[in-house]
Design a protein that fits this description.
Blueprint lengths: L9 E4 L7 H8 L5 E3 L34 E5 L12 H8 L4 E6 L2 H12 L12 H6 L2 H9 L7 E5 H6 L1 H12 L21 H8 L11 H11 L12 H22 L11
Parallel strand pairs: 1-3, 1-4, 2-3, 4-5
Length: 275
């Protein structure tokens, strides 16, 4: 039976979606003192995420060995989708744990476009690229403000997607320092995880069909072959923001981007915002 997990032994990558959370999670889980969850995004404290992993207790998501592990790690991007998820931070606090939080941010225009294109895989996705949900998910100051109501600033590490892309080793070093871990492990290679891939209409319809669950029983080589064939059908081009859409996003985020710079030191000027 797994050991009990101390209340201060949780490390949560809380988003943002399409900011490199899968890659950072993959890099970190190789550290010998980190115990990864049974699934990257359990969404235990979320209320409206369809892919939520249902377990009786939060600690049931890990095979934690207190003699080996310092942190239990997960990475649920639904944790920073306020107001779609209005209670995550308070739910975590009420549960009685005191985690370390890691939050990745990205050029908001690029994040919104990537988010929009990623969701095109779902036949039912119908939000406009300037929908408040996409803009709010890029309002990093707004998302962090939900956690500051319940947790101290020193328990929040904010990282930039561009730094993770340009120098992933340095970002890992910063994360290890934040968690108080030895610089004892670094991946042999830094492979991008969960990149945004456009899907054909045929592939999306098949995924939404009643036979989609049966694909779990298909051998992996055959599954790869089927996916390869499907991707040879007409695939839509990735959505690019228009000048008008960029202006609308800029206007919605301008004030909070300045606050993000002042309180968290993020260089928003390289995204085109005033500091």
């Amino acid at each position: 039976m797994p050991d009990p997990i101390p209340v201060d032994a949780y490390a949560l990558i809380i988003g943002a979606m399409k900011c490199g959370t899968s890659s950072l999670y993959d890099y970190l889980q190789g550290h010998p003192e980190i115990c990864p969850a049974v699934t990257k995004e359990p969404e235990y404290f979320s209320e409206n995420q369809n892919h939520k992993r249902h377990v009786e207790r939060y600690q049931d998501l890990w095979s934690f060995d207190a003699a080996v592990h310092r942190y239990a790690l997960e990475a649920s991007t639904g944790y920073t989708k306020y107001p779609e998820e209005p209670n995550v931070a308070s739910n975590i606090h009420a549960y009685g744990i005191r985690p370390k939080f890691i939050y990745l941010v990205r050029n908001p225009f690029d994040r919104i476009a990537s988010h929009y294109n990623f969701m095109q895989k779902n036949e039912t996705w119908g939000l406009d690229v300037t929908h408040p949900h996409l803009i709010n998910t890029s309002n990093y100051y707004l998302q962090l403000a939900q956690y500051r109501k319940w947790f101290p600033r020193e328990d929040l590490l904010v990282l930039d997607f561009a730094d993770l892309t340009d120098d992933p080793r340095r970002v890992l070093e910063r994360t290890y320092d934040f968690l108080g871990l030895a610089h004892s492990y670094f991946p042999e290679e830094y492979t991008v995880k969960n990149p945004t891939q456009m899907k054909s209409r045929t592939e999306k319809r098949l995924k939404a069909s009643k036979i989609s669950p049966l694909f779990r029983f298909v051998p992996k080589p055959l599954k790869r072959g089927v996916k390869s064939l499907l991707r040879r059908t007409a695939v839509p081009a990735k959505r690019v923001l228009t000048d008008g859409e960029r202006l609308a996003i800029f206007a919605a985020l301008r004030e909070d981007m300045a606050r993000l710079h002042r309180e968290y030191g993020i260089d928003v000027q390289r995204w085109g915002f005033d500091a």
